[in-house]
Every structure is written in structure tokens, then in C-alpha cells.
Amino acid sequence: MGSQAKPVNAKVLPIILPEIRSMIDQSRHHVATTADLTLVHLYWNIGRVITQDIQKNEKRAGYGEQLLVGLAKALTQEYGRGYSISNLNDFRRFYETFQILQTVSVKSLEKEIDQTPSDELGKEIRQTLSNKSTDGRILQTLSAESSERILIDFKKHFRLGWSHYRLLLGQSDPLKRKFYFEQEY
After folding, report:
1. Which terminus of the chain has fewer Cβ atoms in its 10 Å neighbourhood, N or C?
2. How far is CA 82 from CA 24, 58, 71, 77, 130, in A?
3. CA pair distance 52, 136, nearest whole angstrom
4. Structure confidence by residue, pLDDT tens digits, 21-64
């Protein structure tokens, strides 16, 4: 009925096993790098949302502090301790200190604009698209541009995870921060 499997040729295993190990190791590294970049992007965007909301409501005394307390409580209950007031403040400082540079195609931007014509994202994308540089790279948010902000290009800085950025945020001297940032890649 069923044929018995032949034993693996002793010469074949040493040839293909290293290749398979290499593929597994490369995939694991890719997953870790992707996760790190996703968190960096997430934390920057959380900082953006918080900063922009506080700026809209800056006339109300104590608004920012109250917002952070409320957000920290809600997010910590739902997602765990990574969203404390201290971390939310770090996300804000991260957004205010760094600027994410992304490469996107004009067609994908136009498609997104068509899908969201009336919301703030659509307006922001339109503004960004109209000020797009000729090399296809755009600044994620033009309204927060500052000459002192450090540009993050994920093509160059993909090795930097959140812990790297937290260390850089701990450097109070902007020139030293930029120097250390540029040394990382």
C-alpha cells in the first residue's frame, strides 16, 4: 500500500539546512525591523494627534494636562502600561523633535484624496501634494515643519527603534541630538 519514505541523503541535509536557517533568520529579522518601524511611526502619530489637539485648545487653561491624564487612563486600561502620561509626553516630544519623511506615489495620494475629500487628512494630503518635491519624497505634515526638527527617512533609519529615539530625546542639546542621530545609520 504505502511506500516507505527513503532516508534523507546525508549529503543533501548539510546543503539545504543552512539555506533554510538563513531564510528563517532573515524573516525573523524582517519582522522585528518592521515591528520597530511600525511602533516608531505609531508613536510619532500619537504625538502628532495630541500636539495638534492641544494647539487647537491652547486657550483653555490646563487643557493639555487634563487631556494627557484622560488619555493615559483610557489607553492604559485598554492597551496596558505603555501609554502612561510620561510615555504620552515622550510621544509629543518625539513628534515635536522629529519629522518623518516618506516616499509615496502621487497616484496613491490622489486615490486617498478621492476617497476622503472632506476630512482633515484629505486637506493635509492635498496641501502636501501641492508642495511635493520633485524627487517623490514628501514631508508628512507641513504645518509642523521647523528647521530644528530632525528628518527621519525610514529608508536610511530603519535600524532605529523606539528605544533609540527615546535616548535621543534625552539629549537636551539639539546639535548633539542631531549629531548622535546622524551617527546611528
Report:
1. N
2. 30, 26, 12, 10, 37
3. 26
4. 999 999 999 999 899 989 999 999 999 999 999 999 888 888 99
